[in-house]
Design a protein that fits this description.
Layout lengths: L5 H17 L6 E5 L3 H13 L3 E3 L2 E6 L2 E10 L5 E2 L1 H7 L7 H19 L11 E5 L7 H11 L5 E8 L2 H7 L5 E6 L19 H9 L5
Parallel strand pairs: 1-2, 1-6, 6-7, 7-8
Antiparallel strand pairs: 3-4, 4-5
Helix pairs in contact: 1-2
Length: 216
């Protein structure tokens, strides 16, 4: 199974979530996209559910010698969340990553300021929060995101992604009320392998999606 692009993946994901909504399982929903890639998926979900669309900026903390290898993540002003097992396997300490954390937090704040455009973050208290991304690989970024959401006392958290590794989805089930994943390939490798077109999105792409999303 391979999605054509994030837009198609978002529509397919929205179909499954719409069924849940019609059964009353997603009352008072708000959709939070993990930018940048998750915004294109979440835009389709929010439109199908008639839910407000916003962003939850999370930054992956990459290994010093391989930035794409996530060893942790940060969300908001929270302390970094590290994958302790990965740190041990790589022989890294949290102190080794202090500089990386500082740089990623600065980028996180830049994006929050740009994407929010002066708007306050949505009030999540008592709501059903759908955290949406374009895929789930190690799960460390999603874990940081949902823990930040949980502290805002929503009624329910649903993590929704088109494709995920079995290990990550199993891990996240302990963190949220439900994981909705359309495809769990046993040989996962990387999120981008499951899309025909997986171009990098720009800040302007994110802003355009937010501007044309469901009413806030």
């Amino acid at each position: 199974m391979q999605f054509r692009d994030r837009k198609q993946a978002g529509r397919k994901l929205a179909e499954q979530l719409r069924i849940r909504q019609e059964k009353g399982a997603l009352p008072d929903p708000v959709v939070l996209a993990l930018p940048r890639g998750g915004v294109a998926v979440a835009h389709e979900v929010a439109r199908a559910l008639g839910a407000p669309l916003d962003v939850l900026v999370v930054r992956k903390i990459g290994a010093p010698f391989q930035e794409e290898l996530g060893v942790g993540a940060i969300a908001g002003d929270d302390e970094p969340l590290f994958d302790e097992g990965t740190l041990d396997r790589l022989g890294l300490s949290k102190a080794d990553l202090a500089g990386t954390v500082e740089r990623e937090r600065a980028e996180l704040r830049r994006r929050e300021q740009l994407y929010r455009e002066g708007r306050p973050a949505p009030d999540l208290r008592g709501r059903t929060v759908l955290v949406v991304d374009d895929g789930l690989a190690t799960g460390v970024t999603a874990r940081a995101a949902v823990r930040a959401v949980r502290r805002q006392t929503p009624d329910r958290i649903v993590l929704a992604v088109p494709v995920c590794s079995p290990e990550a989805s199993d891990l996240l089930r302990a963190e949220v009320d439900e994981v909705v994943c359309l495809y769990r390939p046993a040989a996962f490798m990387a999120v981008g392998l499951w899309y025909e077109y997986f171009d990098q999105l720009s800040d302007q792409d994110v802003l355009a999606a937010l501007h044309t999303g469901a009413d806030r």
